[in-house]
Amino acid sequence: xxxxxxxxxxxxxxxxxxxxxxxxxxxxxxxxxxxxxxxxxxxxxxxxxxxxxxxxxxxxxxxxxxxxxxxxxxxxxxxxxxxxxxxxxxxxxxxxxxxxxxxxxxxxxxxxxxxxxxxxxxxxxxxxxxxxxxxxxxxxxxxxxxxxxxxxxxxxxxxxxxxxxxxxxxxxxxxxxxxxxxxxxxxxxxxxxxxxxxxxxxxxxxxxxxxxxxxxxxxxxxxxxxxxxxxxxxxxxxxxxxxxxxxxxxxxxxxxxxxxxxxxxxxxxxxxxxxxxxxxxxxxxxxxxxxxxxxxxxxxxxxxxxxxxx
Length: 310
Description:
The model has no long low-confidence stretch (mean pLDDT 92). Helix 1 (81-90) packs across helix 2 and helix 6 (241-255) runs parallel beside helix 7 (271-283). The chain is globular, with a radius of gyration of 18 Å. It has helices spanning 81-90, 112-121, 171-174, 189-192, 205-210, 241-255, 271-283; strands spanning 3-7, 11-16, 23-30, 37-41, 48-51, 57-59, 65-66, 95-99, 123-129, 132-135, 139-143, 150-155, 160-165, 179-183, 199-201, 223-225, 259-267, 288-291. Helices cover 20% and strands 29% of the residues. It is α+β, with helices and mostly antiparallel strands. A hairpin with a 6-residue loop joins strand 4 and strand 5 (48-51).
């Protein structure tokens, strides 16, 4: 049987929220089989649990934000996508996340610190079958036209593959790779994707901060780009780090809806379109089915691979 996974022990992290700029403590706890992911706001007078699912997403401005039932007026947790991406990369199914604030800390701006934390805690197999959402019919969402066109698509595929293309018309971005395909069967998430950092443009800083966003951003946790070049002294971690971070985000956004079997492709997509795509898929009973594997050898390549040490 291809089994569910959780942590062997508790692990903690402290860092700044990239948007709110506040110090936040995070505690990752093992969870029973079939729990899924639950964020628990422990800073509130009465702790509030927020179960992670596609309908819980209440805001997608610059990040994926969840609240109970997707209620925008309820307690929320912002910027969950990098932690969710790390969990997807390591095949984790069940986790309780105690958080003393309303935003997951950004740490170094990638998923690598979360991968390290999760692997340091150890990963434990559970006596329950791992469930997958298998795409059986293509679904697509689109937004805009011409130069403003964005789209995202899921279609049947024996495995899990993501393809992403970006287009910023910016000299620093244009000098890097702008299209990447990552297949969980042949790639290594930790090596190929996890270290890609979020990025931002200096021209957008004032507008973002006026909206209460990006208050915790710095060169310690964001690739900062002016009108011509990358300003971080160490440069880029990958020759195509910009588009790889978009795939990292997409892996996290899509994991909100479950473990996927299918092929994702996108052009200039983001958190909002990714969530629309998930909701479109899950609203169409003919477009997916839930599957498990009694014999892990029958699962698509890459899914049964154990999470090796960092």
